[in-house]
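Hi, here's the filled form for the chain we discussed.

Project: internal
Contact: R.S.
Residues: 237
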Amino acid sequence: MTNPGWLNDIFAAVMMAVAAYSAGRLVAARRWARLTHPDVDVSHILMGTAMAGMLVSNLNPLPSGVWEVVFSVLAAWFVWRCYQFVRDPSSGLGYDQHVHRLSRRLIHLVMALAMLYMYLAAVPAEVGSGGSMAMGAATGATANFVVIPLVFIVALFASAIWELDKIGRLSSSRVTQGQAVPALASVSGGSRGAAHNSNVTDEGVDGARPRWLAPRLEGAAHIAMCVTMGYMLVLML
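And the returned structure, exactly as it came back:
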């Protein structure tokens, strides 16, 4: 656990930024009538705050026991959301409007379980000059189950790669739409072109639903969280 202290500080700052951004998403989505996943944003707020506190002990607002309860409840919530999808794939909270309706629930269930594992498996450690985390490596019986954090790490980095690819596809889609709309306007006339342009959303062309709130920024925040969580799990091995 003698990782550079400055690296912990950087990851902690990124997690605080993600938590603040996720809180802003909740406010902005309501004010601007845009689509988002409220439970995902709440989970990012909780996870970002908790990980910042694990990386830099002075930033931790709650004791470990309280965080264990928080992430147990969060894991149970996403288990329920996964069950809802199996029972009714069009269940609400924005998931019915999102292409990754099940994977969003599953990966955040994995993330909640990973957070719970880090609190249950690790013991508090003082942050010294060597730059150790505020939470130490896994000890006792849990240290023998190396496969558990490895499964979490693989799932987190796979999700980060998936999100990175999705950001690229969204960017390509917006460029394609931006080229197609002027062409349509020149053929169909200004009024029809303008009407078509107003129907272009971040998830595609569909005038029946509002636009998704900053999907690429949401993806970037998710990638940062997956990388940070994976980094912390590696340090605990």
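Let me know if anything looks off before we file it.
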